[in-house]
Every structure is written in C-alpha cells, then in structure tokens.
Amino acid sequence: MCNAINDGMRIAMETDERTCVFGEDVGFGGVFRCTVGLQDSFGKSRVFNTPLCEQGIVGFAVGMAAQGWSPVAEIQFADYIFPAFDQITNEAAKMRFRSGGMFDAGGLTIRTPYGAVGHGGLYHSQSPESYFTQTPGLKVVVPRDPFTAKGLLLASIRDKNPVVRFQPASSACLR
Predict the structure, then answer these.
(1) Spatial contact of 29 and 3, defined as CB atoms under 8 Å apart
(2) 161 to each of 53, 65, 138, 171, how far by Cα in Å?
(3) What contacts 131, CB < 8 A, 6 or more positions away?
(4) How far apart are CA 43 and CA 27, in angstroms?
(5) Active site residues
(6) pLDDT of 120-170, one tens digit each?
(7) Cα angle at 100 between 99 and 101, to 5 degrees?
(8) Which end of the chain has fewer CB atoms < 10 Å from its terminal CB, N or C?
(9) In this structure, are residues 131 and 90 in contact, taking their beta carbons and an 8 Å threshold?
(10) How far apart are CA 166 and CA 81, in angstroms?
C-alpha cells in the first residue's frame, strides 16, 4: 500500500512541478514510510516537514491550492485532523462557491491514515471520514487496495475540487 502511495506521489511530482508534499516527518519518510525518498528526489522545497500543527498544515495547503499549486498535505493520523476541520469544511470546500467561481482550492489533497493500527487506542485508531462526507464542495476517497490507492491518489491530486483521502492505517507499512 505505501509503495503504491509513494509511487503515485512520485508520478505526480514528476509530471507537475507545482505538486509538493508536506506534513509532520514526511521529509524522513513519514511514520508509515509513504514518503521515503521523495525529498532526496525532489528537494526540500517540494517535500518538507512542518511543525506539529494540523491547522497550520491545512491552512497553508489551502492557500497554496488557491494560488494554483497542487499541495499534498499529510496529517499523520486521522485522529488529529479535527483542529483543521474548519479549514477543510468552511474554507477549502466552500471557496469556489463563496467567491462566485473566482477562486478555488482545487488541487488540494489531504492524505491521512485512519482506523485501527493495532495499538495506540483512542488517539491512533479513529475513523472520522463520515464527518467529511456531508460537506458540499469536498470529495472524500478511501482506497481498498494498492491499485486503487495509487489511482485515487493521482486522481485526487489532479481533481479540481479539494479531496480528503483516508488511507487504511491497518494496511500501511508502520515500522
């Protein structure tokens, strides 16, 4: 699963110089190892670590998307996406409508692992995807296998709408 995700991000970055990847520890490969080698290939200006601040990660990503970038923002665990809920549901999702189509956050992809990982209890095993599925202007995708993980990731990055992408943590490469 994480090899497919890594390959999808690599293809997106090779084909569009305005695609970048950022989040907590992504420069080191991320906790699930999905970004291994990307910083070496594309540099620290396109693959970089952020502070531990989900609001900041998503707020920055929304701003980048509004300026024509295709940011892939990683929230390390879906359990921690809630501080960024307002930016996702009230800013990114509604930007096109609020501006009369003059601005949008298309190209924004938020990646996050969700569900049980076998440990971590209440702060590393939540499944918050249903909170986002009722938001107009926002797409939510969940891959079921490596094939759909790669395909949905590339489709999300190229989509003209903001996308929250939940990847099953139980099938990721946690090390």
Answers:
(1) no
(2) 23, 10, 6, 27
(3) 85
(4) 9
(5) 54, 124
(6) 677 777 889 999 999 999 999 999 999 999 999 999 999 999 999 999 887
(7) 90
(8) C
(9) no
(10) 11
Cut 0.85: pTM above it: yes
Please give the Cα distance from 97 to 86 (Å, whole number).
16
Annotate the chain with three-state secondary structure. Answer: CHHHHHHHHHHHHHHCCCEEEEECCHHHCCCCCCCCCHHHHHCCCCEEECCCCHHHHHHHHHHHHHCCCEEEEECCCHHHCHHHHHHHHHHHCCHHHHCCCCCCCCCCEEEEEECCCCCCHHHCCCCCHHHHCCCCCCEEECCCCHHHHHHHHHHHHHCCCCEEEEEEHHHCCCC
CA distance to 17, 25, 65, 169, 173, per residue, from 36 (Å): 19, 10, 24, 17, 11
pLDDT in tens, 68-112: 999 999 999 999 999 999 999 999 999 999 999 999 999 999 999
